[in-house]
Amino acid sequence: MKKYIITVLGHDRPGIVAAVSKALYDSRCNIEDVSQTILQTEFAGIFITTMPPGMNEEELRKALEQRLLPEGLSVFLKEMEGGGVQAPVETEPFVITTMGPDRLGLVAGITALLSAYRINITNLQAAFRGGDDPRRNVMIYEVDIPGKTDQAAFRAALVKRAGELGLDVSLQHRDIFEQIHRV
Amino acid sequence: MLTDREVISTFEMLRNEHLDVRTVTLGISLFDCASDDLQRFKLKVYDKINRLAGSLVGTCDEVAVKYGIPIVNKRVSVSPVAVAACPFSASEMVEIAETLDHAAREIGIDFIGGFGALVEKGMTTGDRALIEAIPEALASTDRVCATVNVASTHAGINMDAVALMGRTIKRAAELTASSDGIACAKLCVFANIPQDVPFMAGAYLGVGEPDAVINVGVSGPGVVKKAIDRARDGNPGLDLGQLSEIIKRTSYKVTRVGEIIGRQVAAKLGVTFGVVDLSLAPTPNVGDSVGEIFQSLGLKSIGVPGSTAVLAMLNDAVKKGGAFASSYVGGLSGAFIPVSEDLNIAEAARQGHLSLEKLEALTSVCSVGLDMVALPGEASAATLAAIIADEMAIGVINKKTTATRLIPVPGKKAGEKAFFGGLLGEATIIGVPENGGSEGFIAIGGRIPAPIQSLVN
């Protein structure tokens, strides 16, 4: 059965997930995974669904747009590739935290380094609110670092890059957070 | 997914509050090195330490980088040398200490503990030889630490050993007179010594322990102080029950970090993981002080009235949090108040807030005892022994560990400063009341019997 990724964007308010899931239900699509987030005032949701036999992509797109566009929501539909399972790479989970004054190119600067080391970001929260309080300008990257990475070299490169960007940085194994904060 | 609050609080514990693992100590049994041939014994000891601990520093550094948590000290503790090297004479014991020192230097650690004896009920020839060797052994080495257990709740107080330790401390100070008696900073006298202490100078590996074991000491007075400050800034109305809860939670976090690091190091070295010792152990660095916690809880300084109550609460809260965090808690586990090693406590002594009597009172509710207390050089051996006896009595009666690390600074008087350097710090010399007034008592000797275990008032 084919799987589809449906992305919905719009100004946040009560009832968005209800509207999307009702539209999918009426088209007899089964939701396998869903995740949503709110940045400032904007809603973004990703749904992975399977389509019933006999329905095609265009019909589903039309059905969703008909219901959601009038509500001010944008819809994007795409068929999922490769059955949804990635080839496993041996990695260890880490958390990178930065604090420091906002300026252009912070996310680009850090992520370019991650990309060069083939480090995958599994979750990213970043908020830049300006001002002097470092807690108001924070990036938190949850990343998977390949097992073969030279830890000391990566740590040194990260500290150097953060220094160039004027940021205070920490790189820690995720286990530390799990141990400290979860009973 | 982690919450930003969790991530930021951890970030600050590390960045601003000195969250670290204070020591990873590899315990090594020397019993299988036993021999009546000195050269053979020394060779076996040297080889075994090198074989088991050769990669200790490298492994700790690797784990510290991986987890982003500094491991400040890497150390080795060994079986009590008086037991493992029982047949040897005092001069041969000094040679063994030099072998331990050499091995410690070779593997890149700053201290090795276990040059010790357990004499609470009596002494073997090995115990006598070792204690006789202590002054010269500590004067001629840099890294060796000595411990002598002279009392226990089950055996009472061996007053002959107490008197002997008074003379031993005097002699050790004289041999290192040019460096303010630094040999005494590496010598602990204990009551109820635990078998698995990772902290120096008291570390040794007990007779019931495995062949090799990793014990971890966590610290974090800075983390506790900042947690209290933050909580009180946010809500000035918090009462002591609520503040105790905050200390408990902080201690929990610190202990969890220590355990995960210790287990990783143990796994990489292929040895057993032993215990986490959850102690608040200060260093002479700003922001890493136990004394400052007293000020965060409203006292002008450690030592003023109220200090014993604050320390009792602090010590108990640390233990409660730590005990919940790890199933294997051991060692000393409590708050340390080493005078010279804590900037704030050293300052309290300088300003006269902290007397020997108040320090002694504090040790009744915390670990460990009269720790790194600089005394006038004129303090007699009998007076030192009497101070030790008082401290041992607190431990024996209260079924807890107590210890002394007393430094009678040669040629210096109360109010002058003694300088030990590095982690050992510096301290103002505290006056000893009635020096010489205890001679008659110490001269009696014998063993104070073990205390009754009921009628506990």
Task: Summarize the structure in words.
The complex is a heterodimer of chains A (183) and B (457). In chain A, a hairpin with an 8-residue loop joins strand 6 (120-128) and strand 7. The mean pLDDT of chain A is 89. By secondary structure, chain A is of the alpha+beta class. Chain A has helices at residues 16-26, 57-68, 106-116, 151-164, 174-181, and strands spanning 3-11, 30-39, 42-50, 74-79, 91-99, 120-128, 137-146, 168-173. Chain A folds into two domains: 3-84, 2-Layer Sandwich (Alpha-Beta Plaits), CATH 3.30.70.260; 91-180, Alpha-Beta Plaits (2-Layer Sandwich). The longest helix of chain A is centred in the last third of the chain and has 14 residues, at 151-164. Chain A has a four-stranded antiparallel sheet with strand order 2-3-1-4, with helices on one face. Chain A has a four-stranded antiparallel sheet with strand order 6-7-5-8. Chain B is of the alpha/beta class. Helices cover 44% and strands 17% of the residues of chain B. Chain B contains 15 helices and 13 strands. In chain B, the strands form two sheets. In chain B, strands 1, 2, 3, 4, 5, 6, 7, 8, 9, 10 and 13 form an eleven-stranded mixed sheet that branches. A two-stranded antiparallel ribbon of chain B has the order 11-12. The termini of chain B are far apart. The relative contact order of chain B is 0.13. The model of chain B has no long low-confidence stretch (mean pLDDT 93). Classes of the chains: A alpha+beta (183), B alpha/beta (457). The A-B interface holds A 95, 97, 99, 123, 125, 135, 138, 140, 142, 151-152, 155, 168, 170-177, 179-181 and B 1-2, 4, 6-8, 10-11, 14-15, 62, 65-69, 253, 256-257, 259-260.
